[in-house]
Amino acid sequence: MATSDEAVAVELEVDGVAMVRLLGPQDRLLRTIERQVPGVRVAVRGNVVKLEGPAEEVVVAQRLVEELVAMVRDGVELDDVGVETSRRVLETGGIPSQAFGEPILTSRGRTIRAKTPGQKAYTDAIDEHTIVFGIGPAGTGKTYLAMAKAVQALQRKEVDRIILSRPAIEAGERLGFLPGTLTDKIDPYLRPLYDALNEMMDPDVVPKLLATGVVEVAPLAYMRGRTLNNSFVVLDEAQNTTPEQMKMFLTRLGFGSKMIVTGDITQVDLPAGASGLKLVTEILDRIDDIAFSRLTSEDVVRHSLVGRIVDAYSAYEGRRQAADYNATQQAKGHRRKR
Fold it and tell me: Per residue in 15-33, pLDDT tens?
């Protein structure tokens, strides 16, 4: 019986179709497996994957490869993030294939689905609640998955229209300083929503849906005074709403509608005052049919560096807040001594 540090080799035979999807471009996914299980060398010959390294690590790599093969056979499109997520799920005793949600949409040969346990919990919350707050850092799929669920609901005729909105506030910019008409000024703020729509739907169909009002993309200010019935409403970048704007938006909810509010409370661009998204987590956290889904750096589905960048900034903010607190306490101590 091999000891944990004894070198061993294991060969796994994979069918041709699954092998192509397992390898990835330039065998990229296999290199990702090697990074996830240091010490194990992964080699491919024909339809055979060979794992070599310390016995304990080879066992881990074997379980990971077997799970990845099962997932690609089930239609999961793997990428670097999927491999990394699968490794983390195995570490916690879970089953990676269950961490990925069911397909939400298929567009241009790409399948959109939750890719992490946190994202799956988020999409499940959208299915189960009328109002859902998706809160987390950049790259966690908050808005993208919400829009995918909106398109899915429209295609299933669960709603009559989709309404996508953002507050027209960004860091260091005001609308009045931008050139052009009001539409020209607003368009840059809404462009990310248009881009996502064109990825999820036929680009030839999107203009027609926009023209007929079946899909509406508008600044948050345009929501005032309306009642939104039979609609799937997504508010993006909600950290930049004031408490008054957030209350205004949430009270637009009509019959047969669903609202998803997304934002990152660490990136508030408001010039002054409290963020409506921060405040609402304290006001509505115990109301039935409202869910708060909090995503983390482990749910980042962009380049793996993004997750590490998010963690680094979080650590920095923690140190800065601790330093501010200590400075305040020291100042109080000096005043008492006087």
Answer: 766 677 777 776 777 788 8
